[in-house]
Write a structure and sequence with these properties.
Structural class of chain A: alpha/beta
Shape of chain A: globular
Number of strands of chain B: 14
Largest sheet of chain B: 7 strands, mixed
Strand content of chain B: 15-25%
Number of helices of chain A: 11
Largest sheet of chain A: 7 strands, mixed
Number of helices of chain B: 11
Largest interface: A-B, 28 and 29 residues
Oligomer: heterodimer
Helix content of chain A: 40-55%
């Protein structure tokens, strides 16, 4: 599908509070400036491939598992997660596998959590903390996020709480309540509502709140920039933000939805004449895919033997994660 | 102002309201993670219980919330899971039972049966302007697994139960009956803690057991005093904890007296007294010499004279019929 290329991302600079020094009251603190670069683009591509590959493997290896993440939101997850810092908290209306993977949690640990008897409540990645629940309880996810944001503010921490949930589940009033209280207390809360227009359940008009930022959940680079901007505002004490992110409702390729493919987009960005212009690194995509595939295959194979013996996938360099 | 007299050793005297306030102050002073949240709590809250706390601990620890009990409860649950110890004040008459139920149910789902889940140290102070006006809220909540429902009647219980509730790992709902707030009582200096699972024997007797909670405990004690004049020795058990029910203490009392009257300010159908009656019949049927009597509903039916009449009808059925 043809669409305007998001070249604005090349020129956008997001002023972020420095790690550990931002938040309310840090008016005079020096600001870090983030600009996307080729290395950042490669990490987005690698993480998107990792999540997509994980879905593919998980569907084969765990066909009946209710906690499997849904297809179609990989790019949104990757774009959003890279905006977070170690002191932040992620609350997910779901098991949180995608989010944990995008934050660098080892594949084996995520598999362990997915297969735990009775489901899993928390995938503790150390930092940021990921709180997940079996899907279908969006209101609980909102409550957890509200409380986590309050706890961070109460403790004077610099942490932001990001809550990702699907539009189709839950009581619309719960979302309004959550936003209203968070706004009244200026809580460091970022709500991300994933919308899947292709799904019948989401065909009806959504509840719209003033100030909602609407984003293309397939355009991973633009989304990453927007997420950084929103997180920076929230971290700076501006109060809660709501991002409405339109994502696909099923497996790629999603021709029936008319949506573009985030991996194809990222590859275009990485081409010699693309915004990232990495030239010879064009072969990187294939290399990345092969590396990710090997890691995933090993992780899923090892699950039958010992999920604890897996080598972790290394986290992206902190410079990329934090825009320093 | 009524004085609570339960035979406790003489100690410092204070009102029920002051006991709550002291307990809250102690929780805030001893635990930096404790935070009081509610509508107007910086100005004393619904019943004036939190007066002065904001001045002492600051507005961040005694936090005024908008009149949105659903959102406050949701925030409280999330904050508890994030490691805080929120003490939420909600007004029973303004709180849809479903709002409380939803949060308690959510907390229960997060607490695995093996006890290896996260701490959910959430205390909900349910300020009741008039017990019985909120239909069976305590019965509703007492049906929720995974939480304690406490109805302290005595000053000492209000003082010590809140301390224990703040330290608990699971949610605790405490019913704060406005009728009790001006009452005075003494704190036994020898008693420093209270068991959240135990009912309390307030008066020993051998002829009939009167089971009550909250303000009805005093109606039961008044009824016992009336019965004493007639030569009937009533035993008064203060339930204190409605979830879990202390059936051990209840059954032991029934085994001693063989007759029981349950006093409950809530509506008759689906009330906590219905649950207790069912369990007495199931667990102590062969100890009973008479049917279980329940007094429930409006305040008129839980007046001391009514309780005494019900007890009398069990102890002296023939005389009651003849009279």
């Amino acid at each position: 599908m043809d669409r305007p290329f998001p070249t604005f991302a090349r020129h956008v600079t997001v002023a972020e509070p420095p790690p550990g020094g931002g938040g309310p009251g840090a008016e005079g603190a020096a600001r870090h400036h983030f600009q996307p670069d080729p290395r950042f683009g490669r990490h987005l591509l690698r993480d998107t491939l990792l999540l997509r590959g994980f879905h593919r493997h998980a569907e084969r290896a765990l066909p009946d598992h209710a906690g499997l993440p849904a297809h179609g939101a990989e790019a949104a997850t990757v774009g959003l997660m890279q905006a977070l810092r170690p002191e932040d908290t992620v609350v997910v209306d779901g098991v949180g596998a995608d989010e944990a993977l995008a934050l660098g949690v080892p594949v084996g640990r995520v598999l362990e959590a997915l297969c735990a008897r009775g489901g899993v409540w928390e995938i503790r990645s150390g930092e940021p903390r990921v709180l997940g629940r079996p899907p279908g309880d969006r209101d609980l996810a909102l409550a957890l996020a509200l409380g986590a944001a309050f706890a961070a503010q109460h403790a004077g921490r610099d942490g932001v709480t990001a809550c990702l949930f699907d539009r189709r589940a839950g009581d619309p009033a719960a979302l309004v309540r959550c936003m209203a209280l968070a706004a009244a207390w200026r809580l460091p809360l970022l709500l991300i509502e994933r919308r899947r227009p292709a799904l019948q359940a989401e065909a009806a008009p959504a509840v719209e709140l003033a100030g909602t930022m609407h984003l293309d959940g397939i355009d991973v680079v633009s989304l990453a920039i927007a997420a950084r901007s929103a997180v920076a505002a929230v971290r700076g004490g501006a109060g809660p933000r709501l991002l409405a992110v339109t994502v696909a409702g099923g497996e790629w390729p999603a021709e029936d939805t008319g949506l573009h493919d985030p991996v194809a987009d990222l590859l275009a960005w990485l081409q010699p004449d693309g915004p990232f212009a990495v030239g010879d690194d064009l072969a990187l995509a294939a290399t990345l895919e092969a590396v990710v595939e090997r890691q995933l295959a090993a992780a899923f194979r090892a699950r039958g033997e010992s999920t604890r013996a897996l080598a972790p996938i290394s986290r992206p360099p902190s410079a990329c994660m934090h825009g320093g | 102002m009524r004085m609570q007299g339960t035979g406790a050793a003489a100690g410092r005297t204070l009102t029920y309201r002051a006991a709550w306030r002291e307990a809250l102050a102690e929780a805030l002073a001893s635990d930096p993670e404790a935070v009081v949240i509610g509508e107007g709590v910086s100005q004393g809250g619904r019943h004036g219980v939190t007066a002065g706390l904001a001045r002492r601990f600051g507005p961040a620890r005694v936090r005024d919330a908008p009149a949105a009990c659903d959102a406050i409860l949701e925030l409280g649950l999330g904050a508890a899971l994030a490691g805080l110890r929120p003490i939420i004040e909600v007004v029973a008459e303004h709180t849809p039972p479903l709002a409380v139920e939803r949060m308690i149910a959510a907390a229960a789902r997060l607490l695995p049966a093996d006890g290896h889940g996260p701490d959910v140290s959430l205390v909900i102070r349910l300020a009741c302007d008039q017990a019985g006006l909120v239909p069976s809220l305590e019965a509703w909540l007492a049906g929720m697994p995974g939480c304690h429902v406490l109805a302290p009647a005595m000053v000492a219980d209000a003082r010590l139960m809140l301390r224990a509730a703040v330290a608990a790992r699971s949610p605790v709902v405490m019913i704060e009956d406005r009728a009790l707030l001006p009452m005075e009582g003494s704190l036994d200096p020898a008693v420093a803690e209270v068991d959240l699972h135990r009912a309390a024997l307030r008066l020993a007797g051998g002829d009939v057991t009167l089971l009550a909670h909250g303000a009805q405990v005093f109606a039961a004690l008044d009824a016992a005093a009336l019965l004493t004049r007639e030569g009937i020795a009533a035993e008064v058990v203060d339930l204190r904890c409605l979830q879990p029910l202390d059936m051990e203490t209840i059954s032991a009392s029934v085994a001693r007296t063989r007759r029981v009257v349950i006093v409950d300010a809530g509506p008759r159908q689906g009330a906590i007294s219905a649950e207790i009656a069912a369990r007495i019949v199931a667990e102590a049927f062969f100890d009973l010499d008479a049917p279980v009597r329940r007094l429930a509903g409006h305040a008129a039916s839980t007046a001391a004279a009514d309780i005494a009449a019900a007890a009398r009808s069990l102890v002296r059925p023939v005389a009651t019929l003849a009279g």
